[in-house]
Amino acid sequence: MKRTPIFTVLLLCLSILLTACGAQKEQNLLLRIGGMKDFKSSGSARTLVFDPLTRLDKDLKPIPYLVSWEADEQQKKFKLNVTKDVKFHDGTALNADIVRWNIESLGALYYCGYANYLEKVDVNDDLTLTVSFKQSYPLFPEELATIPVMPIDNMSEDYKIASFNGTGPYRLEEYVENQTTKLKRNENYWNKEKKHKITEVDWVPIADGAARVMAVTNDQVDVVGLTDGYNAFSFNLLRDLEKNDSVSMIVEPAEQFTSANSLGLNWQKGVLEDVNLRAVICYGINREPLAKNILFGIPQVAEHYIGGAYWDAPEHFVEGIGYDPEKSNEFLAKGGYKRVNGKITKDGKPIKLDFVVRAEDEQPEVGQYIKAELEKLGFECNLIILEPTQAFERQKKLEYDVTISWPWYEPVAASLPSMGLSKEYQGMGLGGLVDKKMLDYADEFYKAKNRDEAKVALQKIWKTQYDNYLAAPLYATTRVIIHNKKYDGYLLDGSYYQVDLSEIHLAK
């Protein structure tokens, strides 16, 4: 009988072991995400399929991604270099003409200020293009981080994404509206530095916050809160979860909140057209008991619309708007109001407020607390709790005096067009174009050649907003991730909607 040499046997065993190890490393890993919205309705969900043109680092500074850039001295012209060997999921190569279409067509749709100053976009060759502005526009690379790059003419007539064919780390495999959406890892993903270990994603839409928490505690999903952009759970649920050993919570650092839950004041219509009365409310609401007793001490009290961790945040330019009963009374007298038997009156008539809140998450409980605070101040307050769609209809028509809103968000360059240069009620709150000078300040901000120049404009922007008391900051929209212990490596990206799964791995 022929004998096999011992070293051959050893090599064979080693080969089997290596093959087994390799197979283990490449095992299918399914991540089940519980999201607030249907997949195609979620701004966060699309970032799994579509890459942005640039990304923002932890300091919110732009870094190259699908394009890199070179600017002229005046920062009026930008030469963009398209990253090589990037392909859409259908195999189409990304080129300069596709980038041109995205810049020209999607800027205004995604609230990019550059759309107001764009002069022309010239395609130089297959991988380079030149973008020219009517004036200096150094914020251009930063705003490109909000553009989800898609094929040409991929927007429908009603401004919805026609085909989810992107260049991103995951491919859309199966979609049924308002049901579980299935994605698979893009095995040909261009960015080799971000090797995603998660091979499959199930996106499970769960509208109700309590149901989302129950889903993760009952192991129906692996994670919730990862894709919501802000905390979307009742805080009493979070308090109870601290005692649950089957899940873990990741809470955003206190100074990094990207927006604040605020008391939005209707400055355009009704009794709160009077800035003095708005100031009475802004300084008259005691936030501490709200955060401690109603919200269980999880979010911090906010005196600004954005956390101080960001260079463009109002904290660096103006004093906060916090609880100050003395100031509240000063503005009451300044406006010619009186308290009669504890009621605020003017010309003998009591001041009545309609307070509209949505019947979701903690808003009803917060609404009850704020109603009591307004009544302590001397207002007559009618609390109106409505389903979200009904509440939004009233808000858009400005049929309210007070409501819960999120008037600004990071980065300021993205929120300025809707929150500072508009009088319309947007999804986040009522636009703050209270003074036409805001248009000049915004122009100055967008054409600033560096951050020092931009800060001069921001000083004027924030002073205008805060001096007019358009909203009272209440508490931080602290983002919270709740996950089971199957995986580790969850990240809260600096960009509001960006979801990054690249560091998620099996827990040890």
UniProtKB/TrEMBL annotation:
<dbReference type="GO" id="GO:0042597">
    <property type="term" value="C:periplasmic space"/>
</dbReference>
<protein>
    <submittedName>
        <fullName>ABC transporter substrate-binding protein</fullName>
    </submittedName>
</protein>
<keyword id="KW-0813">Transport</keyword>
<dbReference type="InterPro" id="IPR030678">
    <property type="entry name" value="Peptide/Ni-bd"/>
</dbReference>
<dbReference type="GO" id="GO:0015833">
    <property type="term" value="P:peptide transport"/>
</dbReference>
<dbReference type="GO" id="GO:0043190">
    <property type="term" value="C:ATP-binding cassette (ABC) transporter complex"/>
</dbReference>
<keyword id="KW-0732">Signal</keyword>
<dbReference type="GO" id="GO:0030313">
    <property type="term" value="C:cell envelope"/>
</dbReference>
<dbReference type="GO" id="GO:1904680">
    <property type="term" value="F:peptide transmembrane transporter activity"/>
</dbReference>
<dbReference type="Pfam" id="PF00496">
    <property type="entry name" value="SBP_bac_5"/>
</dbReference>
<feature type="signal peptide">
    <location>
        <begin position="1"/>
        <end position="25"/>
    </location>
</feature>
<dbReference type="InterPro" id="IPR000914">
    <property type="entry name" value="SBP_5_dom"/>
</dbReference>
<feature type="domain" description="Solute-binding protein family 5">
    <location>
        <begin position="68"/>
        <end position="408"/>
    </location>
</feature>
<comment type="similarity">
    <text>Belongs to the bacterial solute-binding protein 5 family.</text>
</comment>
<dbReference type="InterPro" id="IPR039424">
    <property type="entry name" value="SBP_5"/>
</dbReference>
